[in-house]
Amino acid sequence: MPNYIDPMDADALIDYCLAKPGAYLDYPFGVDVAVVKVKAPTQSSGRIFAQVALIGGVPSATLSCDPATAVTYRQLYPGVVVRGYHCPPVQQPYFNTLPLAGDVPDDDIIELADIAYDVVVAKLPKYRQRELAEATGGTASTRP
């Protein structure tokens, strides 16, 4: 059963994302926006898959997504899960923004974080995907 009483907080989501292979924390938009990126060991920089910040005083996350899954979650949580609020319009279909305030069950937040990671890893060149998998002793994907 989803946990609405004690919602996932920003630190818990960041910690969950940082436990993924090749993930690291960055602050390219300033100290108020924690950004989790993924990269293979020999890459100089990575790709964003999660961002956590206060939006209107509410801890919120923006997570990468494929357009079809993004729409599904927006329909499941209308007015709660929205297009990437700060993204340029051309990128908005590829990001969902949601509050970490109990409106979305922790299980769905975790699933969205897993999807975000997998979507971004899948966009890496195949040789980078192999490098990431080899460095972690298996697969970089979080889902079978």
Structural key phrases:
single chain; 144 residues; alpha+beta; Aspartate Aminotransferase, domain 1; six-stranded antiparallel beta sheet; 33% helix; globular; disordered N terminus
Per the CATH scheme, the topology name is: Aspartate Aminotransferase, domain 1
Return the structural class: alpha+beta
Give helix % range: 25-40%
Largest sheet: 6 strands, antiparallel
End-to-end span in angstroms? Answer: 23 Å
Q: Quick one: CATH class?
A: Alpha Beta
Q: How many β strands by DSSP?
A: 6
Q: Any low-confidence stretches, pLDDT <50, length ≥5?
A: 1-6
Q: Mind telling me the C-alpha Rg?
A: 15 Å
Q: Count of helices? A: 4
Brief account:
By secondary structure, the chain is an alpha+beta fold. Helix content is 33%, strand content 23%. The radius of gyration is 15 Å and the shape is globular.
Strands, helices and their partners?
Blueprint: H1 10-18, E1 23-26, E2 33-38, E3 47-55, E4 58-64, H2 67-76, E5 82-83, E6 95-99, H3 106-123, H4 126-135
Antiparallel strand pairs: 1-2, 2-3, 3-4, 4-6, 5-6
Describe the 3D structure:
The protein is α+β, with helices and mostly antiparallel strands and 144 residues long. The chain has a single domain, classed as Aspartate Aminotransferase, domain 1 (Alpha-Beta Complex). It has 4 helices and 6 strands. It has helices at residues 10-18, 67-76, 106-123, 126-135, and strands at 23-26, 33-38, 47-55, 58-64, 82-83, 95-99. The two termini are 23 Å apart. The relative contact order is 0.20. Residues 1-6 have low confidence and may be disordered.
